[in-house]
Design a protein that fits this description.
Structural class: alpha+beta
Largest sheet: 9 strands, mixed
Strand content: 25-35%
Helix content: 10-25%
Low-confidence stretches: none
Mean pLDDT: 90
Radius of gyration: 21 Å
Shape: elongated
Distance between the termini: 54 Å
Number of helices: 6
């Protein structure tokens, strides 16, 4: 059975999901379409890349991932297929794939020549991505889909945490539906920066100071108190037990977070 996943910023209100599923089932026999996420913030490439990195890449070889975030017909932006770890990612070369696949061993193919059956281009997933998905599923590869590219046309990245001798300057890169805040530093990078030393994180003036990592949301932390832990994505994560950290403390994507090294 061919597995196809959908990651989009469509939301749940409209007909888009149902329409593309109908088209895919009409074009390809014996498929399973998996809704990964349709609630990406509109046009938010960084959040979409974070979701792709942490939800798509554990699927089995041969899986086809359709990613539709900030996708529209544009002569300056190509439609591409990225092959990584024997999986296929159909998306727009708008900066999202350069974030999601940064540093990975990938192949990139231009699929823009796969023409739409429509004279209007307001739903690229229906008009083009479904065709590309069908070609990949039936031919079991992308070598004939289009020309191979050396690099992405649009190159974006997530800012890296900056490590000084006495502090780490991090940035909020994702906020989940619980209001948990993800920072742009992982557990290995954090441990290396500390180098056996302790840390101190002042959450907000008069609110809380965190001086140790929690192993879970309940680890020595009472309800309503802030904590710092390692998420399943390996990012450092700020949370409040049984509450919404981002809403409670006014954190947004892009905000700097300074961790003192002591």
């Amino acid at each position: 059975m061919q597995i196809i996943t959908l990651t989009t910023d469509w939301g749940e209100k409209d007909w888009y999901g149902g329409r593309i599923k109908g088209r895919l089932h009409s074009m390809i026999d014996d498929i399973q379409v998996v809704d990964l996420n349709h609630n990406i913030e509109k046009f938010d490439l960084r959040s979409a890349a974070f979701v792709v990195k942490n939800s798509c890449m554990d699927f089995p070889a041969g899986t086809i991932h359709i990613i539709d975030v900030n996708t529209y017909e544009d002569r300056d932006k190509s439609f591409i297929v990225v092959k990584y770890n024997e999986q296929y990612y159909i998306c727009t070369d708008n900066g999202l794939p350069s974030i999601a696949f940064e540093g990975k061993d990938i192949e990139i193919y231009d699929c823009s020549h796969v023409l739409s059956d429509s004279n209007y281009y307001t739903f690229a997933v229906l008009d083009m991505f479904a065709k590309v998905t069908s070609i990949i599923a039936k031919e079991k590869g992308i070598e004939t889909i289009g020309s191979k590219l050396d690099r992405f046309a649009t190159d974006k990245s997530i800012p890296q945490a900056i490590v000084y001798n006495d502090r780490i300057v991090c940035q909020v890169v994702y906020i989940d539906d619980y209001g948990n805040v993800y920072l742009n530093i992982n557990d290995i990078e954090f441990e290396k920066a500390l180098n056996g030393r302790k840390f101190e994180l002042q959450i907000d003036i008069g609110y809380a100071t965190i001086t140790e990592l929690s192993s879970s949301y309940a680890d020595k932390v009472i309800k309503g108190k802030a904590l710092l832990t390692i998420s399943s994505t390996h990012n450092l994560e700020l949370a409040v037990r049984e509450d919404n950290f981002a809403r409670l403390l006014g954190y947004e994507i892009g905000r700097n977070v300074i961790i003192k090294i002591i």
